[in-house]
Design brief:
With 155 residues, this protein is mainly alpha-helical. The chain contains five helices and two strands. The protein has a two-stranded antiparallel sheet. The N and C termini lie far apart (74 Å).
Length: 155
């Protein structure tokens, strides 16, 4: 064996796949990281848009007696419902895609082996849940700086 070329006794030359698999693994990890950060950003954007577009509705709820703490709690629970839906969908669809599509692709590439790993999903979920509780509280604080009357008169 010399470098990246292995020579057999019958004079056939085969290439070792180590450099290729290392590069492909790095590309897959980078694309997974970009995709995950994109999904989290999209999720945060959905929560923000939901709260900002309902400013007038939230002001109406406060004008009829809902306290700021109750409103923050309601918004946090809405975020948790979003997070629960995201977690369930990612487990179900992510597992199906992994088992069906990724396994087929890895079986077609001779130097890849398929291994189902769910651990990265469970690493991301606590951050997702924390975001769904923290972001509504931050946005509510920003919205609550204006009076209820001003929020009711805004378009």
């Amino acid at each position: 064996k010399y470098g990246a070329i292995a020579v057999r006794a019958n004079e056939t030359v085969t290439f070792t796949a180590m450099p290729y698999s290392t590069v492909l693994t790095a590309i897959i990890k980078i694309s997974y990281t970009i995709h995950t950060s994109n999904r989290i950003t999209n999720f945060v954007n959905s929560v923000l848009t939901s709260i900002i577009t309902r400013r007038k509705e939230l002001a109406m709820l406060q004008s009829i007696g809902m306290t700021g703490e109750q409103l923050k709690k309601m918004l946090s629970f809405e975020g948790l419902y979003y997070a629960a839906g995201t977690v369930v969908a990612s487990i179900v669809f992510g597992s199906l895609v992994s088992v069906i599509i990724v396994r087929a692709i890895s079986n077609s590439i001779w130097f890849f082996t398929y291994k189902f790993v769910i651990f990265p999903m469970f690493v991301i979920y606590p951050f997702l849940i924390a975001l769904t509780v923290i972001i509504p509280a931050i946005i509510y604080r920003k919205i609550a700086k204006t009076s209820i009357i001003e929020r009711l008169h805004q378009n």
